[in-house]
Amino acid sequence: MPQQTRTRRPIPDSTTVKELGARIRRARTEAGLSQGALAAPNFTRAYVSAIELGKIRPSMKALEYLANRLGKPTSFFLSDEAEESERKQREFAIAELSSRLTRARAAEALSSAEELLAAAKSHREIATLRMYRATALNFLQRGREALPDLEASERLAKQLGDERLSAQVNYQRAIGYRLVGDPLRAKHLLEEHLAKVEAAPVIDALMRMKLLKDLGAIAYDLGQHEAASAYYFSALEWSKDVSDMAALATIYQGLALSYRARGDLDAATTYLQRAIGASEAANDLTQIAMLYNAMALFAAERGHLQSARTYSDKAIELARVTGPAAFVPHYVTTKAECAAKAGMWQDAAGFAAQALALATEHQNVRAAAAARLVLSDAASHLGQVDEGVRHLKEAATAYEELNAFAELGEVFQRLSRLAETRGQSDEARHYLIKAYEATRKPSGLMERK
Hints:
Structural class: mainly alpha
Number of domains: 4
CATH architecture of the largest domain: Alpha Horseshoe
CATH topology of the largest domain: Serine Threonine Protein Phosphatase 5, Tetratricopeptide repeat
């Protein structure tokens, strides 16, 4: 189709029009486009050249087209000096916010994201800031609040045609779905993302490592401990090309938990010690608190109850200072478990009740279920069997909602044993069948070429 000729409107030599042309030229150069590439297919190279030289003023429709091609809002080219200064300040603040998106600084990042969102001027800023706010919420274990932000950000990213932003949003959506107890949906998103990363001409080693690490965590949630180990080992292999000690610590921790679940405490302890070393190198206090809690669990399983309680107290103390607050009930539950192993059932019940209250306050369903398991054991040992059964049924409901099949199977086994001790053989058999059904889920490990 022949190109239409356009009537150009000569205008006086204007500073405003020259500045507009200069901004378009700078943006084009930064984008690595020639005048012809920017113009095609709607305009000619000569038309773009005339605009950049300040000889003509483009129509709003033409400017919107050029701005979209350059990945900039139209206001970027029209703003006066004051507006441009304000835009640059916002741009700097958004970039600075991205550096604070860590577990340790999540609450601070959330506050900044909300403040910047209130002043956002363009769809791109809104999409980016809603994604950043959701990322902070995910770090704070508030996935249910993060998902609406991510859905809105995904819609805007598609409108903008920004595939990179869309990929970042979908990664956080996967984290959010895992937090709200939908690991299968999270797994599907991560697998899709991993397939795209592996199909790229140049593989992003950092993103591939993160995706494999998170797939390992989801496999662990689903009770697929061998699959989890395989994912973590793949992530560990890719970590050699990435200088990220915090991620390396998470991988080691995942391997430790996977080996612990498979009954190999020696291997689990080895990987946990490596995780602590990597966390200390990264100066990640939040991760160190998590690892102290894991050390408490391992020490308790080995019968080193005093060491277990010491590690538990360290984890709680550190978490109260560094956050996130949603992690604290997990660590208090560990303290309750240590008391239970020592036969201190009143203390165990008290700590578990405290953990349940904290978990409910922070809407942490998994932590609440874990606290109920200790409360059930304590109630049973204190002669309150009906209360123990109630807590187990509440825990089973929570784990079923979370698709946490390994934990669900364990709860059904406990209910079966309690029914057996009460002479309820039919009910004991019923729960034993449910335990079997809960734990015979297919492996989630992807086939890898």
